[in-house]
Amino acid sequence: MQDRPIHHVSHGRVRRVSFDRIARNRVHRHSYFEPCIVISGAGDFEHGADRHSLAPGDLFLADPGVYHEIRSLESRDLQLYFISFQIAVHHSADGRHSSELIPPSLITSFLARHRTHLSDQSDVTPLFEYLYEMTTRDEVFGRSANYRDASLLLIRHVMSALASSASLSAGDYSDRQQKTRVQRAIETRLHKSLRIAELARACGMSERTLRRRWRSWSTRSLADEINHRRIERACQLLALPDLAIGEIGYQVGISSPARFSRLFRDLKGLSARDYRKQLMQDTAQSMTGSHQRTTEYLDD
After folding, report:
1. Which domains does the chain have, with CATH numbers?
2. Are 9 and 85 in contact (CB under 8 A)?
3. Which residues contact 36 (CB under 8 A, 6 or more apart)?
4. Is 21 helix (H, G, I), strand (E, B) or coil?
5. Over the stretch 122-172, which tens digit does the pLDDT of each residue have?
6. What number of other Cβ atoms are within 10 A of residue 63's Cβ?
7. 16, 102, 165, 261: most buried, per Cβ within 10 A?
8. Left if phi > 0, otherwise alpha if psi is -120 to 50, otherwise beta: which for 269?
9. 98 or 135: which carries more pLDDT confidence?
10. In whole numbers, what is the pLDDT of the chain averaged over residues?
């Protein structure tokens, strides 16, 4: 039987960096992929022969072996989250995949072709922030299986966005940007009651147009999408042990505790209290080891 590739994805921790004191990092390259999301501010990203202007919500990626530099020379206000990951390829007759949360077909397409810069991706910022908070609040939690799985889901999102956008036509790419703009508008309003008409105005279209376009983008209704994102945000907040469960519903725009409890159970299959208990139990599990990472600076 012919050997099949096994892809193993290892990763570091989410970090945050600000370019207020040092307006640029040195031109360098390293042995791993490094996706970054712009939190705020402005700057530019030079990656090999390419240069991209940076704005909030931009997702960009440094490839292994490619010299690159990030700068915020004029405004000195650029802030980023970033994570590093590596993809090791082995071969086995059974072709079992060691990173179950990331499909082998996605890794293959990502390795074959992907963008290194994509705008309007701020919907992924909360996951970067969630992982960053996990490690800064609790070192043990940062080594948990829950952290590992959440990190792999983040990397899966990054791979999917960068790989799929690489093959989009100009029209399809514009359509994807519109969908991302709607998702971003939802994310920034999850803390309060949200009407579809308000969402449409924020996205520069009529309510009728928004509903029509959303039906072409998703199998979920807009109301279901909003509820789904509210509960996903609630799951992130449940990882913070000092935040009472009774407060979390208010934090995600659901003022009725009974409605929050019912919606959470409907979408997650268990109560918010049991979900938090499960998260805490996962902290006892250790995170898998990672491959050696190296960085080389151009002026060394």
Report:
1. 4-122+288-297 (2.60.120.10), 170-269 (1.10.10.60)
2. yes
3. 59, 60, 61, 62, 70, 80, 81, 82
4. coil
5. 888 988 998 898 877 655 555 677 788 888 889 999 999 899 877 656 566
6. 15
7. 102
8. left
9. 135
10. 83
Encode 69-128 in three state secondary structure: EEECCCCCCCEEEECCEEEEEEEECCCCCCCCCCCHHHHHHHHHCCCCEECCCHHHHHHH
Q: What phi and psi, each to the nearest 5 degrees, are found at residue 95?
A: 65, 25
Burial of 113 (0-12, 13-18, 19+ CB in 10 A): exposed
Longest dimension (CA), the chain: 61
Torsion of CA 117, 120, 124, 129, to 10 degrees: 90
Question: How far is 94 from 3, CA to CA, in rounded Å?
Answer: 7
H-helix or E-strand spanning residue 59: strand 59-62
Look up tokens 């080594």; give the residue. 143
- Residue 100 reports pLDDT greater than 90: no
Handedness of CA 15, 16, 22, 26 (dihedral sign): positive
Question: In angstroms, what CA-CA distances link 263 with 159, 233, 246?
Answer: 30, 13, 14
Output phi, psi for 278, to 5 deg: -65, -40
What secondary structure letter does DSSP report for 33? B
pTM for this one? 0.61
Task: For residue 253, give the nearest of 237, 277, 276 by alpha carbon.
Answer: 237
205: DSSP letter: S
Q: Which amino acid is at 19?
A: F
Reduced to 3 states, what is the DSSP secondary structure of residue 190? Answer: coil
Q: For the chain, state the CA radius of gyration.
A: 20
What mean pLDDT is predicted for residues 95-102?
Answer: 56
